[in-house]
């Protein structure tokens, strides 16, 4: 893995892990002009130790490995299982078929079964409750509340948006990510779906995401959550929504989140970036898959350049809370995620960005079988805990030390969740994840 920007803190142990760069990256960085700044940091809430981290803004943000990287053994096992389950490239499917075919989450579950892997008890103990919230048009839209097993609350609150290119997937498919954040950050997570294209085209998804944030924050007390300790999170298309909702909260002078977690976000309409070129045929997300999503989402192709999509071109990124961006190396969206981090830093926003080597789009929820996924969750959780404040966490120090000990890769996250059986109802129910290009 390699770090592009680091302006937040982590425990000494985690910091050491995060600052190790592969030899190929070090060689590449040696040929570039790298601007370095150093920021003073405080101790991470997950450890009594602290480490001062450098803010490295590399001159080659968005560049990719040469030759292009290939999946590591664990990641390849998931991709092989996905193919074995019969998943097809999304660009060759109808919307209905894309929503009903096997997903990367299904592949992870199958690999878990083969290897005899059980869900860790702390994650299995997260309680869930399905609710609805009023969307931008007043219609009732599905959401799910995740409450951690440790502590009595009120807990910090995370508003989470799933991926799927604004067309497929739902809260079931992304169950693993929401569950891991709830357990790791000891927070209530409300995973909100939104109306999906082509039945509801852009900007419906962004309008619903804003409506979800406002309603969830306003009603946080009903969920045993404390909106004074607040974060927004999302993956892929949901990573884009998370950043947009943070800007909406700033501009509308709403309660401001303390942190934003954006995992491999869609942040540009440019499909000629280095990572799009290098990983045009990647699985589960390809360039053809992204073109398929955009075709369904936008009534007019020019809408793809809207500032809510082309985030890296915006000139109003200042004034946002600290942001964590997670990227996969083998992903068309790698370059724009790294460039997004650079743009945020230039606007004065605290940013930590990490690209994980040897993994693909959708890896974040695969911690049971892909160690890099657990590492990414650990980084995200450390930053969320810091944002919420150690003294305000509902668990005691011993429990937090236990959580930190479980992030060494020996105890893994749950799978991304079960397939959604209500794929046809995109207005109010989460759609089925696509197996070959899920998670945008």
Give an overview of the whole structure.
By secondary structure, this protein is α/β, with parallel strands linked by helices. It has a single domain (67-405), classed as Alpha/Beta hydrolase fold, catalytic domain (Rossmann fold), CATH 3.40.50. Helix content is 33%, strand content 18%. The protein is built from 14 helices and eleven strands. The strands form two sheets. It has a nine-stranded mixed β-sheet with strand order 1-11-10-9-8-6-7-5-4, sandwiched between helices. A two-stranded antiparallel ribbon has the order 2-3. The longest helix is centred in the C-terminal third of the chain and has 18 residues, at 371-388. 60% of the residues are buried.
Considering the chains and any ligands shown, give keywords for the structure.
440 residues; alpha/beta; Rossmann fold; nine-stranded mixed sheet; two-stranded antiparallel ribbon; 14 helices; disordered C terminus
List the helices and strands and how they pair.
Layout: E1 2-6, H1 12-18, H2 23-29, E2 35-39, E3 53-57, H3 73-84, H4 95-100, H5 104-115, H6 121-124, E4 127-134, E5 140-147, E6 155-161, H7 175-185, E7 188-192, H8 204-218, E8 225-235, H9 237-251, E9 259-263, H10 274-278, H11 287-297, E10 323-330, H12 334-346, E11 351-360, H13 371-388, H14 397-405
Parallel strand pairs: 6-7, 6-8, 8-9, 9-10, 10-11
Antiparallel strand pairs: 1-11, 2-3, 4-5, 5-7
């Amino acid at each position: 893995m390699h770090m592009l920007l680091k302006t937040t803190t982590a425990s000494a142990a985690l910091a050491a892990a995060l600052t190790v760069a592969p030899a190929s990256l070090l060689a590449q960085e040696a040929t570039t002009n790298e601007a370095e700044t150093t920021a003073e940091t405080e101790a991470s809430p997950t450890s009594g130790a602290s480490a001062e981290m450098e803010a490295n803004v590399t001159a080659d943000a968005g560049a990719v490995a040469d030759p292009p990287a290939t999946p590591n053994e664990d990641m390849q096992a998931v991709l092989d299982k996905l193919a074995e389950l019969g998943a097809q490239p999304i660009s060759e499917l109808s919307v209905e078929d894309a929503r009903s075919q096997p997903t990367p989450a299904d592949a992870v579950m199958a690999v878990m079964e083969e290897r005899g892997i059980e869900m860790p008890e702390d994650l299995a103990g997260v309680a869930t409750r399905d609710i609805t919230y009023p969307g931008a048009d007043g219609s009732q839209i599905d959401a799910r509340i995740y409450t951690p097993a440790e502590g009595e609350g009120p807990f910090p609150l995370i508003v989470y948006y799933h991926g799927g290119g604004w067309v497929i997937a739902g809260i079931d498919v992304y169950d693993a990510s929401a569950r891991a954040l709830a357990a790791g950050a000891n927070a209530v997570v409300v995973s909100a779906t939104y109306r999906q294209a082509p039945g509801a085209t852009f900007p419906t998804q962004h309008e619903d995401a804003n409506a979800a944030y406002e309603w969830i924050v306003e009603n946080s007390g009903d969920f045993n959550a404390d909106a004074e300790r607040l974060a927004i999170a999302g993956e892929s298309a949901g990573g884009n929504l998370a950043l947009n909702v943070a800007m909406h909260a700033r501009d509308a002078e709403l309660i401001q989140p303390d942190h934003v977690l954006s995992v491999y976000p869609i942040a540009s309409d440019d499909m000629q970036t280095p990572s799009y070129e290098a990983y045009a045929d990647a699985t589960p997300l390809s360039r053809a898959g992204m073109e398929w999503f955009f075709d369904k989402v936008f009534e007019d192709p020019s809408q793809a350049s809207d500032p809510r999509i082309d985030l890296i071109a915006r000139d109003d990124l200042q004034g946002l809370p600290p942001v964590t961006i997670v990227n996969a190396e083998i992903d068309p969206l790698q370059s724009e995620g790294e460039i997004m981090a650079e743009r945020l830093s230039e606007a004065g926003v605290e940013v930590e960005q990490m690209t994980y080597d040897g993994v693909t789009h959708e890896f974040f929820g695969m911690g049971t079988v892909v160690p890099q996924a657990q590492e990414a969750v650990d980084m995200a959780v450390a930053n969320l805990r810091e944002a919420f404040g150690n003294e305000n966490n509902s668990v005691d120090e011993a429990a937090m030390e236990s959580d930190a000990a479980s992030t060494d890769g020996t105890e893994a996250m749950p799978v991304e969740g079960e397939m959604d059986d209500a794929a046809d109802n995109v207005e109010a129910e989460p759609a089925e994840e696509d197996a070959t290009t899920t998670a945008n």
